Prior knowledge:
Elements: E1 3-5, E2 8-13, H1 20-24, H2 29-35, H3 76-85, E3 89-94, H4 106-123, E4 132-137, H5 143-153, E5 159-164, H6 179-187, E6 192-194, H7 216-222, H8 224-236, H9 239-242, E7 248-250, H10 257-272, H11 283-290, E8 291-294, H12 306-311, E9 321-322, H13 335-339, H14 347-358, E10 372-374
Helix pairs in contact: 4-5, 5-6
Amino acid sequence: MPRKLPPIIDLDVHHTWKSEADLIRYLPRKWRELVELPPDTKLPVDAIGVLYAHARGVNKRMDAFSEEGHRPGSDYETMRTQLLDKLEVERAVLTFDVGQIGVANPYLQTALARAANDWSIDEWLSIPDERLYGALIVPSHSPEEGAAEIRRAGQNDRIVEALLVTNGVGRPFGHPIWDPVYEAAVEMDLPIAMHPGGDQWVHTTQAAAGGIPMSRFEFHTLSPQANVFHIASYLLYGVFERFPQLKLVVVENGVTWIPHLLLRLESQFDAHRREFPWLRRRPTEVFREHVRIATHPLELTPKPDAIFECLEAVGGLEDVLVFASDYPHWDTDDPFFVAQRFPESWWPKIFRDNAAAACRWPTPLGPRHAARVAA
């Protein structure tokens, strides 16, 4: 018998500008003078020159280019047709093309983050479509600047999360140096979201445990390593003890690494907990309460139920998983594909309820829309 999908909240939809000029006009004059060089002048590779190297469509669906040829994710009508209407998305969180502000210059990165947030609010969150919400990019080379930007851009009620895409200070996100960011997030009632990608361009950190990946194959395979490191630091350094209202959403890392992390934490906790005397609860308990993991890119497995069996090794995670499509990347996850990997009893939480509770929505979610039929 066909089964019905619940309404969908999509927590990872990448939007971007049609051209660099759309963003540049939001930069202060002192930075526009850097990027608006004569056409025959080569931009410095460690500044704005890398800003768009990752955003030319090489990792996107080819059918997501607009009729006018604009890059995927830059055209609302194309997004509406291919994602919002087709999948009957109830709410979608716009998360930028995350590598685009991964620059080493800390002052330029702060300016780019502010410009990108203003552009997103003006150009996308003003669209009269009640399904569109936004993340704000947190400048990460200075936690104080990051906190200030959360308080500034977070005043817009269509902003529903604060997004960390680079580790600009070379310290794990659980380190106390990041506390100003979390204090601001709690003050603004925003969850923190982590998304890999920006670290490819920043020399203060690395995207994989052994060094900097030299190919897209390596990066996509190893990208969960950075977030495993950060999540462990959140749990062990007591971020959620200091900020008990904080939520963390981890995007675009898949899910099969979760049992490895939780089982390792459990196996080491009793022997080493004296290093962290502030911990009052086991890390796995705190993880389940405060951390939400987006499904994309859901790993391909020989058997459809292999993902569920993997997660059952730690007792099931139906309260932790949230849906993300990653539109318009070429490996976008269809919700019907995701649904086939989990029990039907998990679907309402994965596709809607967990995300509804994690983010700061300006209005409560109304009655659930009519469900769709899944083959």
